[in-house]
Structure of AsnC family transcriptional regulator:
Amino acid sequence: MITAIVLIHAAADSIPETAQAIADIDGVAEVYSCAGEVDLVAIVRVSAHEDLADLIPAKIGKIPGVHNTDTHIAFRSYSRADTESAFAIGD
């Protein structure tokens, strides 16, 4: 599974509608509105890199209110739960 973090610049007056439209796309796991340099952050999970090309420019990029995107591919996932489970073997 390939995970990508998509930073999205969106029209300020349509952020809730834009976020929901993005969240409704297959392959989009989560969408967050946030403060800072970007308006929305989407977590995308697909089975192949080619799927990103279909999903991000062809679907997310075409949603009304989306100005541009910046995509970051995740190499590895780290979380507190992963660390705790590694040390819980044999408990």
In short: Strands lie at 2-10, 28-33, 40-46, 66-73. Residues 18 and 66 are 7 Å apart (CA to CA). The first strand starts at residue 2 and ends at 10.
